[in-house]
Structure formats: structure tokens, C-alpha cells
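Objective 1b. Sequence-to-structure analysis of NAD(P)-dependent oxidoreductase.
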Amino acid sequence: MQDTIALIGFGEAGSTFARAGGWDAACVFDRKTGTPEAKAMQARYDEAGVTGAATLAEALARRPLVLSLVTADQALAAAEAAAPHLAAGALYCDGNSVAPQTKQAAARAVEAAGAHYVDLAILAPVDPARLAVPLLLSGGRASTAAEALAALGFQNLRIAGDAVGRASSIKMIRSVMVKGIEALTAECVLAAEAAGVRDEVLASLDASERPRPWEARADYNLDRMMIHGLRRAAEMEEVVKTLEALGTGAEMTRGTVRRQRAIGALGLGTPPEGLAPKLAAIEERTKPA
């Protein structure tokens, strides 16, 4: 099955899946092709054993299965750019973290070109789960896509329904809690550190919730934000769209966007080990000049 697949985007998700599945016949296009980062991207292709295409059209030619794994802000543009080059009847699986409305707009472009659009939601970090990561699919061809993805090695697939946007609704609304807790953690421990009461605050939280010490939880959440804050901020912009469309309000989620972006923009992509060093690194980058 691997010679049937084209990948759009080769970041963490695409490269992790390709390596885990041994997709050495997959063809890949990443928008970094033709940029100063092209050499590093080619090295990533070589490491995963995939073929890098010079153009999007080349990557998609005669490929009946397409997996789009780009950043949230590029998801719709990628679908619109891909649409004219998709093989007739191809399955376009959009695995990007965007609002249902964004996926519905992408679906219109793909379906108008004679291909089939599948809403794909990735419900956990791809590393270390890799091909066991939970995948949720919706759309008229969701079952067909699930069979094709299973043949590529994915092990944890579930159909959410026939409507494009249903899988992404689950992903987006779930992210209100998952990414919101990360942002609230940063706000809490940064304030506690500044007040000199970090140990006491964390101890009080430990007393009320036992499954995981808050020292470890805060460390983990800041780690995720330092590495992925910019990407998560883009995703949370889509969550805002989701909530606004529902009419339930998105005030806290807008705050999460700002906090994720602020932490991600600090340039701490290789975070130090431990909570105290992370807090010190953030303080160093944010203190007035």
C-alpha cells in the first residue's frame, strides 16, 4: 500500500509516520522545497527513506491516497493547491488541526476537483504513539480511508460519522481542555515563581489531585509549549472559530492562543531539563532589557 500514498508536509507527524511504517515508496512534498531549508528537508527525506518531490503536482500524480499534515494555518491553502493535481477519485485525508469550517472549505475544493475528502483528527501526540496514535475519521468515504490507512500500518482508527467537520469538532473542542490546561499551568507557575511561593502552590495542588505530581505536570506542559507553542497557537485560533460558530464563547481560548504563542515565540525549542530551569529560561527571555 505504501506506493499509493503521497504526503503533503513532512514535519513531526509526517516524518514519524513514514519512519514507523517503513513507507519507502511514499512520495512527499513540503513547502520548504526550494527554500534555504531544502537541504535539511532532503536529509529528513533520506532518513525516512521516502522520495521528495520537486513540486506538489509531482508528489500527487497517480497517487490514490493523500495525507495532508501541514501546520494549521496552511491546511486550507494546501488543499486548494492540491485540488487541481489530485488523481480522479483519490482520497484526500486532511489530518490537520483546524476548525470544522476550515475543513468544510477544504472539502469543497477537493470534491470539486473530482477527489474525495476525509476529515481526519489525530487525538494524541504522534510521538511516542507513532502508528498506534488514535485517529478519528469522518466524511462520506471515512470507512474506505480507514481501510487504506490500516493497510499502511495505523492501528487505532475510529469512524465518527459521515459529515466532514465531525471529527475535527471533537478534536477542536477537546483541545479547549488539553491546550487550555497547558496555558493555565504556565500562568500559574510563572506567577508562583515571581511571588516566591512555587513550592507551596504546587504542594497545595498535589494535595487536591494525586494522579501526577504538579511539579512533573507543570514541567511537561511548559516543555510542550516551548517546543510547539507557535504551532499550537495556530491550532487554537481554529478552536476559537469552532466555539464562535457554536455561539458558546471563546474568551479563555483566545487567552490560550496568546499564551501558547508567547511561550512558543521565545525560541526555546530545546528546553532545559526540569521545571526550575524552564522557568528561569522563560524569565530570562521575557525580562525587560
